[in-house]
## 1
Amino acid sequence: MNEGGSKRRTVYRAVGIGGVLIAAAIITLYTPWLGLFNLRVIVVKGNRHITGEEIAHASGLKSGVPLARLPVHRAEKNLEELPWVKDARVTRNYPHTARIAITERVPIAALRTDSGTYLLIGDDGVITAEWTGAPVPYIISDGIPVTDAAPGGRVQGREMLAALVALHAAGIGLDDFVAVDFSDPRGVVLRSSAGTEVLLGSADEVPDRIKELTALLPTLVIGDYRLIDLRFGGEAILVPRKVVNR
C-alpha cells in the first residue's frame, strides 16, 4: 500500500513540475506578443490653445504601460486641472493607442489687471491664460474680482460672469465696443472705440440691457453719441455729441 501511494505522489509531482514547465514555456512563447497591448501612441484632438505634447505630458500617461492598466480616470483629472481644459476624455484603442479628446474653454473677455496685463476669461469664468500680444482680441473688462489674478483663477460673482457671457453671445465686442467696466456693480458701463459710454445699470440687469442694445444698434451710429443710457429698461436716453458750427 505504501509503495502504491509513493508512486502516486511521484506521478503528481511530475505532473505538477510538467505543468509549471509548460506554463513557463507558454509565457516565454507569448511574451513578445504581449507588448502589442502596451501604450505606444497618444492621439490628441480638440486642442487649439495648448499643444498635443503639453496635453500628453500633463495626462501622466506613460509609454509601455499595458492598456488594460492605463489610469484613464486619473489622466482625465490631471488634464482638467489645466486652465484651458474644460473637459477631457481618455479612451483605450487597442492594440497600443490612447486617445485624448479635449474640450477647451472659450475666451469671452480679457480682464485688465492692476499691473496693466491682461488675463483671458473663459466661458465658465476660469482664467485660461495671460495675454501677451497686442492688440487684445477680446472685450476688455475692468473691476471684476477674481479668486486669483493668474491662470486657474475664477471670476467671483455670477452676475458679472453672466453679463460677460451675454455680451459675448450677442456678438458685442471689438467691432463697436472695446471695454466694459464693473468697478461699480450697480452701474456697469460699456465703452465704444469712439468714446461712447453705454450705461447698463446693475450687473444682474446687464443681460436684459444687452438685448435692448442689440435691437438699438442697427438704428444709429454709435460715434454720433456721447452717452446712451439704458438703465431704465425699455427706454433709451441718447445724448449726442456737441456739434461745433464754424
## 2
Amino acid sequence: MIIGRDQDEVDRLERERIINPLLAVNAPIGGTVTARRIGPGQFVKTDAAEAHFSISDLSTMWLKAYVAEGDIPNVRVGQEIDVRILALPDRRVHARIDAIGAASDPTTRRVMVRSEIPNPDGLLRAEMFATFKISVGNVEATTAVPTDAIIRRGEETRLWVEKEPQVFQSRTVKIGAEQNGCIQIRDGLNQGETVVGRGAIFVDNEGRH
C-alpha cells in the first residue's frame, strides 16, 4: 500500500518503475484555503501540532456582534439583525441571531452575539468591520442621557445631577439600551432633571477629592 496513491497509480509505478515526485492531496471537504503553514522544500509530519492547511466554507460567514451587557436582557435568539459592512457601504444584509454568549467580557462589559450571513459572491472577508441593529420589539419613550454622562466604577454606574446652578450631586443609576450616542436610564433619574454630559469625568474626579 502506498499512501496517497490510487490503484491505477500503483500499477503504473510497478510497470514503469518511475516515481512521480508530485503527490496530490485531496481535501476531505470543499472550500477555500484560508491558511498555509508549510512551503516548498519543507518536511511534514503526521503528528504536527498545527494543520498544514486550513480550509473554510466562505459561502456563509459569522457575524460576531458585541452588545452592551445592559442591553442583553432584550436580546433573544431568532431576532432580526440589520447589518452594514463598512467596506461595502452599498450592501445591506439581513440575518437572525442564532447564538448569544454565556459570559460578559470583564474589560468591555459586552456580550458576544452571533449570526450567520450569506456570502454567495465571496465579497465578505474574515475580520471585516460592520455595524448592526437588532430589532428587539416596539419602541417606547424612555429617559436617556449622553453616554459621556455615565461614570463607571466597577459594576456601578453613576452620573452627576445638577441640583441648583453650579451645584451637582452624584447619583447611582441603572442603565439600559445604548443607541446613537445616548444611553437609557431605567432607574435613578427623573424626567426633566439636568445632568453633566461632556466633561462628567472631570467633575467626578474633582468630587472625589
## 3
Amino acid sequence: MQPKLIVAFDRLNNRELLIKSGVIVAGLTQNLNYPEPWLPLLITLSDLTTAQADYETAYHDALSQDKFKISHRNDCRVVLIGILKTIAPYFELASQADVSKLATSGYDLRRDTTHNNTFDILPAPLDFSIMHGAFSGTIDIKISRLTGAASYEVQITQLDPMVEENWKHALWSTTATHIHLPDLIPGQSYWLRIRGIGTNGVGLWTDPLHMIVV
C-alpha cells in the first residue's frame, strides 16, 4: 500500500496541534525534497509559517481563559488545519511514494498494517549545553545530533522547572549545532530544556539547565 500522510489534525488537542504543526513547519523549511513554488498550489511556506505562528500566539493568549481569546484561538486553529490538509496531497504526489522523502515533511505517515508498527520513543539529546550568546539577551544552545530526529523543540521557564505547566515553547530548530535563543531579558534567570522530534512523534526531554542572561 502506498504510504500516505496522516491529516487527522482535528483529533489533536490544542497543545498537540501546536507541537505537530511546528514539526511540519520545521520539516518543510529549506526542504530540498519540496522546493517552492508548490505548484499547482497557491499556498506557500510563508502562508503556513504565518498560520502556525498566529495559532501559537493565540494558543498562549487563550491560556488566560478569556472567552474572546479562546474564540480567536479556535479560528486560528481552523485556518491552520485547513492549510495543513490542503498541502498534504501535493507532498504525496511530489514524493512519488518515496517514504524517506515523505518523512522529511514532518507529517506522520500511514503505513501498511502488515508492516512492523513498533513505536520507538527518541531518547533525550546528549551533550546538552548552553552559553551566553554573542549579543546581550541571547543564549546559544548545543547538543549532539540525535539519530532519528528531524527537528528539535526548545522550552523555557523562569519558574520552578519541576512543575510541567511552567514550561513554555521557545523555538523549533532543524539543526543541533547552531540553536540561538534571542529576545531574553538581561539579568533574568532562565531554565531551558530540549527534545528531538521524529516521524514517530516527540522524544524525551533533556534535564533542564539554568543560566542568568547577560
## 4
Amino acid sequence: MRKILIIGIGAGNPDYVTVQAINALNQVDVFFIPDKGTDKVELGRLRKDICERFIEGSDYRLVPVPIPERAAAGTSYRGSVDEWHARLAHDYEGLFTQELGEGECGAFLVWGDPTLYDSTLRIIEHIRAKGFALEYDVIPGISSVQALAAQHRVALNRIGEPVLITTGRKLAEGFPNNLDSVVVMLDGDQAFKRVAGEDLDIYWGAYLGTEDEILVAGKLSEVMGDIERIRREARDEKGWIMDTYLLRRRDED
C-alpha cells in the first residue's frame, strides 16, 4: 500500500527540524513539493535545502505540485475552502497514482506544524474517504506560534489563563472580552488595526526562523503604523510574507 508522511519542518530555521522529522525524511521515496508560483519559489527552495541537509542518500525524487489559488470567499468562506480542498484532493490523487508506486512512501513537507492551520491532513483524509488506498502518518513540527513566543521571550499565556489561537478574519470581529492573550495567524488584512482602540500590547514577527526574520513589539496603538510599513516594504521586496502575532491586554497599573 502507498504511504504518505506529513512532516512538520518547523517555522523556517532548518535547526527547527526535529530528530523524528529527520528519521522520517530518510524513509521517503517521493517528496511532493508545493508550487505556488514565482512569488513563493523561495519556499520550495527551503524545502529542497532541508532534504539535501538531512537525507543521507540521494535516491529520492522531488515532484512539483501546482497549487491553484483559492477562490474569493464571497458569501461563504467555508464553501470556498471546501471547494479548494476538493480540487487539491483530486490533483493529489492523480499525482499519487502517477508518481507513487505500491509500497512506496511519499511525503509533504509542511511549514510549521501540520495540525495548526494547514490543509494537508484534511486533504489526505478527503482522498481516503473516496476509497483511495493510502496509509499516512503525521510528524509534528515547531510552529510559528512557538517560534514567535521564543524569539520575543514571552510566554504565550498568563499564569493560569488560556490563550486563543485564531485568524485575522476572526479577530476582525473584535478582541474577545473574556481573554487576555490572543495569537493571530493568516492575517493578510492586518486585522489588528480593528482593535487598536483596545489597551493591548503586540508581539509581531515575520519570516520567523529565517535569516530575514523581523520582530516588532510594543503598545499596539504606538507600533501599529511601523508594523504596517515594515510589512508592506517586506512584501514588496520578497513578493510574499508570513507573519504571526500575539496580542495581550496590558497590565493594569
